[in-house]
Amino acid sequence: MTLTDLTITGTGSYLPGTRLDVAAAAAGYPEDTDRIRATGYATVCAEETLYPADMALIAARSALAAAALEPHEIDLIAVTAIHRHGHKRLWSPASWLQSQLGSVGALPLTVNQGCNGQMLVLQVAGGYLTGRPRGNALVVATDQFASSGFDRFTADYGIVYGDGASAAVLSTGLEQPGWRVLAAHSVSAPELEGLHRADAPAPERPDLLQDEHDVRSAKRRFLKEKGREALTETTRSAVREIRKELLPDGDHPRLRRIVYPNLGLPLLQENYFPELPGGADRSLWDFGRTVGHLGSGDQIAGLDHLTAQGLYATGDRVLLLGAGAGFTWTGTLLELR
After folding, report:
1. Nearest to 136 by CA among 63, 190, 85
2. Helix count (H) and strand count (E) of the chain?
3. What gap in Å lies between CA 311 and CA 326, rounded to an integer?
4. Whole-angstrom Cα distance, residue 94 to residue 60?
5. Quick check: 171 and 70 in contact, CB under 8 A?
6. What pTM did the predictor assign?
7. What are the tens digits of pLDDT across the range 242-286?
8. Is 257 exposed, middle or buried (0-12, 13-18, 19+ CB in 10 A)?
9. Could you tell me which residues come within 8 angstroms of residue 19 by beta carbon, excluding any fewer than 6 positions away?
10. Distance between CA atoms of 157 and 86, rounded to whole angstroms?
């Protein structure tokens, strides 16, 4: 999907100043100490005070300021998350964000499509904006695990989760400054949805809450039935397809970085680094290992981190790669205007 008139004109993020030392925290889980330390994370972000919507508002305001836009200029507001928002079940975070910003004319969407949610919504938002002479979408990812029954260290395999929010303003209109969207491509493998599904539905009761947060049990069952090799090959095949679509000529001399999901290092080494140019050297693992896996916000938080460094020149490229439950993968190729 080529989206040549779209530009990420602003990014913003909120990453808590509190960082948990992963090696030290792992000592508190005797049965999982080695497994947690093997993920390779140094620290992960932890937010004890702000809830997801509060963090989203901070990131959104930063992105709007970077894009030099007023809230009333936003046509679409989307909030993505993989976890609870801390309010009533039927509450709409996107509508709250719309109210707080004063973007009364925007279309609000709250999306839960796993850790690839923000990347998928950015692609959908591109289609929504295409054809408009001027238009802007604000897409925010936000998650906070500190105040819930989800144990960031042991709920999943090979991943330690961090708290934070990231936001991107996607704009249509020729020659706007920012990261021009050269192309985007998504791959879906619905046969893998069982990785995050229990073997049978269960009623919603307080005593079953811990089971609801247990990602490992679903993965154990699925991998026992289907085999680990099927997951690895499907993942690598999806990444190869994205590489073929977005980098048809192979490596590009101006491709500076590839922003992968902030998964644990062994998962990246097995499933992702071998399929894209530069491997670990071109990744943003040096940043990811300090913040943890931010739900659906890894890629835009990474892009915001790169933009803040100010080390890139017009024509430099960055590839964002997302992956999430379902299973889906999305690649978005950007070039700095």
Report:
1. 63
2. 11, 11
3. 35
4. 11
5. no
6. 0.93
7. 999 999 999 999 999 999 999 999 999 999 999 999 999 999 999
8. buried
9. 43, 44, 45, 46, 290, 291
10. 25
